[in-house]
Structure formats: structure tokens, C-alpha cells
């Protein structure tokens, strides 16, 4: 391969890398439905392994519902709680349980729960980040203990990392 | 057949009857999450084949959200429309388009859309029936033309039939 | 000065006083949109100087939204919180943080937050007063710490004073 | 310039173009607050020139409120109408007046207005597109005639084009 051809070859490789990166950046600003399904299924698998019945909600970067599944015999009241946990986690880019530490009586943001059409501030909602650490959505789990819900949410959120 | 063998035989028949009945009751009264996922995926496959971007919602026999998926780049406003179509179809056990014929000005149930926190009465929502014809839930599709939405809903609803 | 002239003189003074007061009253009873924009921009300038991303809401004397701006990358959940802080400050003519001292468990207006479609009672909302000290609206800030939000709100509210 | 150098030069130009485009795409996927303010001010200028009092709302790509201004003496009821027009335009990527043609009695999506917490389907809301034609938000105008509202919305939406 002479110098010109070599240069062309590396140029093309370099170009493809840039194009593919920019495409990826484009894609990864917001969770895709394929990623959302991956999150849901990993969370569901963990819930089944833990023998707990939950509702699983995923919202996108705009806090809009992207995917949802309710396991058989799980609480009816958990549909809304799971969705609100996911939305809360994205509204403030924080695990809902961490937010809840600040909303208690005497806390710095006491009773913020009445805003945004109802927030849920106990554990079970966590932001979903991509490989670059950028928040692209959130997951909310409801149906088990708060410890179980949080653990399942974490497993779900990490399902899209490579 | 001696008495012991006879007893064994009837015991087994009796056991099988109980098991099969309880299984059947389980299956046929309410849509399961595995069935709901089957409905969602068949609907999604049809939407992709038709090159249309939709939101897909499935509610159970109690008209509560069971499964949901929003395809990338589909309308944001279709999240709520798809869920409301599914709920409407189960609230009145009817295809939403058929209900809409009765809600027009001068119609016998004019403006019923304002009830139940908002009904959608144009095509795209249909009840989901099991093999025995019993309604066990409903599906709502939003994002395409009303003809496309209805067609995709039918494909989804029939996914659980054997 | 004879009696008639004296009378004329006082009449004119009296008339001018009435005219000037009524004109002034007209102007100062309610925040104008030009004033609201001034409030928003001073608050934004302060937020940028403090390197904090906030939502800024201004309501008028009737507690109705007058102006709003959301800085890029600020919390989605802060849209509603900022608007509710502004409304709360005008509903009760008080800084939201001061109201919050009374709404804690055991407080004299415990859980008033559930009224008025949701109040926010932690710092970040303050009434806007004109030069005469009359309340003509309110500002709400959300996105930073409660100290930052309150400080930015004060800067904004004082932007219309001369 | 020999062939190799020439090739290098064009390669670099080409690379820079790709990088700059991808960066721009990144930036322009969602309306910025500076763009939103530009939209608001152009709309306000047009309203003043037309001697009409309006409410102006801008939402981002996620249909969340980004900027708002209410002109003095404009209708109080127009606050919510303007915001709902902007949201509706983004929910379905369409001018609200065009949507309204389909929601009339006998229309294919009759009474869709009850969804999404209330849609407004008469003129005054239009999507905001960037230079590449991609929808990055929407504007809603309320206070004048529907013709005036629509015209002002168009002027506002086009303010960010170069």
C-alpha cells in the first residue's frame, strides 16, 4: 500500500469513526424503545428471581412514558406509583429515595410531593444513564419492599450499559 | 382393576381435573403479562411492517394498564390517546370506532367522551378476547391513520388466540 | 393671597394630588409585562453569575402566570415548582420559606400544601412590591439550593424598584 | 499543492464539516432558552404592531414549558389556552388549526380534545422547526382572533430561522 492509499484508508476509518460516534451521540441522548425493553426485561428477570411481584415503568429523557409492564397479581395501586417514581427520578435527576431524605418534616424541600401532579419520594425510582454517564430516562419499580424496588430499579437501569 | 388401582385411577383423573380447571380459570379471566407482551410484540411487528410509528397500550380486565411501549419518534400526544383507547374499549366492551358512531351530535350517548377522565371514541381500541370469546382486556393503538391504528389493534388482540 | 385665590390654589393642589394618585394607583396595582420581563432577566443574570440552572416564574397580583423562562438543562420538575412558589408567595403575601415554618407537623397550618392545587412552602418564592411597598405580584425560582433560589428570587423581585 | 496535500486539505475540510454538522444537530434537537426568548419577542413585536393583546407560550421538544409572556390587559383565560395550543402543536407535530379540521363532529378524530389533559385544536399553535426542518418545540398564541393568533404564531416560529 503506497502512502496515498494508506492515507485514504486511515481517513476513511477515521471518518467512519466520527460518523458512527456522532450517530451514537444522537441516539443516546434519549432512551430508545429497544433500550427501554431491555431495561424492563432485566428488571422483570430480577423481580422473578427475587420472587417479588412488581410494576415496571420506564420514561424517556422528557419524562414521558416509554415502556411499562405489570406482573400478574402485583398491586393495582403500584401502576401509578411506578410511573410516578420513574417521572420523579427524571424530573430531578436523582434516585427517589435520595430525594425523600430531603422532603421529610423539617427537610429542606418538605412536601415537594404535591408538585408535578404528584411525586413519589421513597426508593424505587432511579435515572437511567448511558455509557457516557448522560441521563437518558428513568425507571420506576413498585410492588416489593422499598429495598427490593430500589435494587430491581438499579438492575434495570444498568441493563443498557456495555 | 383392583380397588387400590381403581382408587389411584380416579384420584389422578380428579387431580388432573382440578389442575386443569384452576389453570384454565387463571388463564381465561384476565390477561396475563405474558399474553400482554405477546399482544404488544405482535402489534409492534405489524406497525414496523406497515412502516408506521405507534404507541401500544394493553389494559387488563379491570381496565388497568398492563403493558405499554412507545416506538421511537412516534407522537408524544399518542401516549395518552393509546392508553385511553384501550381503557375505552374495555370500559364498554366495544371497538372504540363503533362507540364513536353513537357519540356524535344527536347521537344517543353524545359527548360521553368527557366521562371516565376522558374517553377516545375513534378507531384504534379493541377488546382482547380469549379462545372462549370472553373479554380479558383491551388494546389501544395511536400514531398512524385511524385505519392503520385499528388494523394494528386487531392483529395485536388476536395474537393470544390459538 | 385673597380667599378666592387661596381656594383656587388649594383646589389645584388637591386636583393634582388626586390625578397623580389615581394615575399612580393605576400603574402600580399590578405588575406590567415589561416589569415582569425585567424581573425575569435580573433573576436570570444572577443565576448565570452564580452558575446555577433555574426556572423563573412571575405571577401578577391575581396570582396568574405573567412571565416564565426555563434555563437549558435545568430540572424538568422545576417548571411546576417555580410556578407554584410564585403563586404561593402571592396567595399568602409571604416568602414561601416563611410560610413553610408554619406548615410542619404540629404547625398552625400543617399540610396546607394540599390546598390550591398544590403549594410549595420551602424557600424560592417571594412577593414583588412596588416603590410604595404594595404587592403587585410574585416571583418563584427553582433549580438551585433553597438558599440560591431564595437569593435569586430577591434579586429578581427588587429589579423593578427605583 | 501536490496531490497528497490537496487530498489532506479536502479531507480536513470534509471532516470539519461533518463534526460541525453533528455538533449543530446535537445543539438544535431541542429549542434553547435563547431561541425561545427570540420566538417570544418576535411574536410580541408582531402582536404590538397588529394592536392585539396576546399570551405567548413556547414549549420544547418534550412539550414542556420553556418560555411564556402575558401582555397587559390580555385575557386571563388565554394563559392556559396559549400553553395548551403550544403543547398540542408539539404533541402531534401539526398546526392546531389543521388538527381542528379533523376533530369536528363526523371527523376522523372527533373529540380528541379530552386527551392529554386538554388539547386546543383551533388556530394559534404551530411547531417550531430549525434550519434543517426538524421540530424542536412549538409556540402557542391566544388573545386575538384565530387568524391573528395563527399569524403571530408563524412569525414567532420563524424567528429562529437564519
Automatic annotation (TrEMBL), chains A, B, C, D:
<feature type="signal peptide">
    <location>
        <begin position="1"/>
        <end position="25"/>
    </location>
</feature>
<dbReference type="InterPro" id="IPR052517">
    <property type="entry name" value="GlcG_carb_metab_protein"/>
</dbReference>
<dbReference type="InterPro" id="IPR038084">
    <property type="entry name" value="PduO/GlcC-like_sf"/>
</dbReference>
<protein>
    <submittedName>
        <fullName>Uncharacterized conserved protein GlcG, DUF336 family</fullName>
    </submittedName>
</protein>
<dbReference type="InterPro" id="IPR005624">
    <property type="entry name" value="PduO/GlcC-like"/>
</dbReference>
<dbReference type="Pfam" id="PF03928">
    <property type="entry name" value="HbpS-like"/>
</dbReference>
<keyword id="KW-0732">Signal</keyword>
